Amino acid sequence: MAKSVDEFNKKRLRSSNITVVISIALVLFLLGLMGLILINAQKYSDYIKEQLVVNAYFDENYDAKDSVKIAKLEEETFKKVQTLAPVKKATYISRSMAAKEAKKSMGIDSDALFEENIFPSSIEVALKPEYVDPAKIDEAIKVIKSVPGIIDVKNDSTLMVDVYNNLSRILKWIFGFSLLFLVLAVVLINNSIRLKIFSKRFIIKTMQLVGAKRRFILKPFIIEAIVLGAIGSLIGLIALGGVWYYFTSQIGSAFVQDNNQYFWLVILVLGVGVFISVLSTIFATWRFLKSNVDDLYYS
Fold first, then answer.
1. FtsX extracellular domain: which residues (predicted)?
2. What is the pLDDT of residues 197-208, one digit of tens each?
3. Which residues contact 82 (CB under 8 A, 6 or more apart)?
């Protein structure tokens, strides 16, 4: 009879542990998924911002005999622009390149309607994402315009402001949902751990009544919480990695684009799983250590 009771208790314990691990894995999978979405949304936002360029123009009026000297000056100016703090990428566009681009945009193949090299040479500048901020774009333009050799800088400020505001709004929503999932992770993992500890409340109180110190009682529960939290986190991360690999293979994107950010996401998921499990275990166990025997029947 005693043997069958022990087997039943062991099965119930295994079932309880499996339930906790699955709960932790599912919650952290969703949390990690939101983290991946947030990371890649930020990357895509930065990519979009880098496509918003400003054009810095050189002086179009100069004598043909000074063309070699002017070309050298423009090359020096281009190198200076590349080193400016707001500049992410700079592309030099010569007069001939500007003329070809104009013909292409107008759908004209003949040179009959164009005088040769009527367009000024320029530099197409992609700003760093943080300088696309409407509050900083004017500052960036002033810095570029201050470079000797640049006579004018033009940009579509209205488009930049609209794109920046829309991207910022989207990122705020995604960040808000990520925080919501973090709160849900805390609540759900805490509830799973509390239910597990609740099933052992009589064992906890019995150990206390026979003279076991609180630290001695807490230790095995904390160790178990660390193990369960780590296992649940790893299962969640493996599932997350599988889903992300499938998704990126379907859209033809790289599985890992930035090792540093993904590494910190893995650390965060592991840390959240273990930390919440341990903290919930301490609070739930402490509650029964402080309660009276009669309270165990009504908790």
1. 54-153
2. 777 777 777 777
3. 90
